[in-house]
Amino acid sequence: MGITRLLSHPLLAFFLLCPGLSQAKVEDSEAQKLLTTLAESSFAEKKEVVNQIAGSGDERARGWLESYASNKLGRIESSGQFIIVLENRGRDWTVESALTGENLGEISRRDIDTIRVNNALRNELESILSVIDLKSPDEDNRLSAARALKGSVDGTLAERIPELIETEESASVQAALTEALAIYKVEEQGDVAAVATLSGSLNSEARAALQQAMRSDDAALVAAATEAMASIEQKLTLNRAAETLYFGLSLGSVLVLAAIGLAITFGVMGVINMAHGELIMLGAYTTWGMQQLLPGQPGLALLLSIPAGFLVAALAGVAIERTVIQHLKGRPLETLLATFGVSLILQQLVRTVISPLNRTVITPDWMSGSVMINEALSLTLNRLYVIGFALVVFAGLMLIMRKTRLGLEVRAVTQNRAMARSMGIKATKVDILTFALGSGVAGLAGVALSQITNVGPNLGQSYIIDSFMVVVFGGVGNLWGTLLAGMTLGTINQLLEPWVGAVLAKIMVLVFIILFIQKRPRGLFPQKGRAAEG
Fold this sequence. Notes:
Distance between the termini: 76 Å
Signal peptide: 1-24
Mean pLDDT: 84
Order of helices and strands: HHHHHEEEEEHHHHHHHHHHEEHHHHHHH
Shape: globular
Structural class: alpha+beta
CATH topology of the domain at 243-532: ABC transporter involved in vitamin B12 uptake, BtuC
GO cellular component, one term: plasma membrane
GO molecular function: transmembrane transporter activity
Low-confidence stretches: 1-24, 529-534
CATH architecture of the domain at 243-532: Orthogonal Bundle
Keywords: Amino-acid transport, Cell membrane, Membrane, Signal, Transmembrane, Transmembrane helix, Transport
Helix content: 55-70%
GO biological process, one term: amino acid transport
């Protein structure tokens, strides 16, 4: 239902467009009369009643109309009292009084006469609610309503928008209303001056108006619209590049989390652990399990999953190191095959004990949604949190490696194992703790991955090869190299995917790394001194 028909009723037009009109409650008797008329009239008559309710100035009117649009406005058959349904599941519905807002508890749905609404009336109600919000005391509501008007303004509203802009205190709402008016002027009047207002706008309705203007017979209008569209396309290109960079950093953060634990163990022990991906999987399943233990509290479950995922993966890593890897030191091929076998065992164990199907991990409310930068660019919160989490984990590992005794011993064993042992460092203990640390970080990667991808038995297989690529590209055992390599490979992959597809993009990245290590066999940040001699 267009704005034109909404504003055809004088009372509604006055209520919506008069800038000085304040909202208040009408008398309950008048409200009861309006709702009774709405309930008892035909659909053709209901449209008139809806306009009367919207134009009543009653602060409760929006709630009534919103409830009516969603089939939640009704009355109790026995008493005729009008109610709003709060919960309509089961045989008994939770309701409140439409006039007083008092919670009336649960009432049998058979005792409630719901006021019927058809699709045509529902469409009109949605438009009315959008326009009513322009008078809302809440700035966000006014901004949403102003944005909704873009492409929907008619002649009557266009005459009053300048007054709304003048009385509006919010600059963002003013800008949205100005743009809505400019779209109308370009589409309906071919106003060349209004084109300048839309120049650089990222709104789809604005672009549609300019594209329409470019097909006009007016040469001046076509020239102005063409210039404005060129400006918009330039902005869109920059925003697409920013979005690609954001997704690249997000993927890079995942690769850093997945690879940084491997960089530690591979750097210290020289072990090619093909079960590293399954340690990531265990971290993800720990998150799922924690949510099963704390149903209805996904946020708390996720926070508790961080230490739990670390411990579960660390203990699994110690078990692998003690039962398999310590017996195969100095035999890289046998270690690779053995850890590959362990990875298959862990996958089958999860399939048998839990399920071969993917499990759903609920994303907390504070990680859902996105941050809207502009109308062409929004940043999803879950990926933003993953980027931040990866940086926090990286900073924590750097502190451990630089400021603790364990970090000192790890660096000593990495540089010269024999010399470290001669200085009294227990290399075996360092191996165990290092493997536990690297495995625990893999568990943290699984916790993060549970928020952006499916949790299943094959989760780790998707990242094991990429993890080794990051480690080799960055330099074995170098945390800064791992960070830079992960972010670089993630961004390159995202840049290539739109052009060549996901599979070919990975192949091209692999070819790039092969060529790179031909030139720099020790990676971006090679070990120096005696550590590089081994």
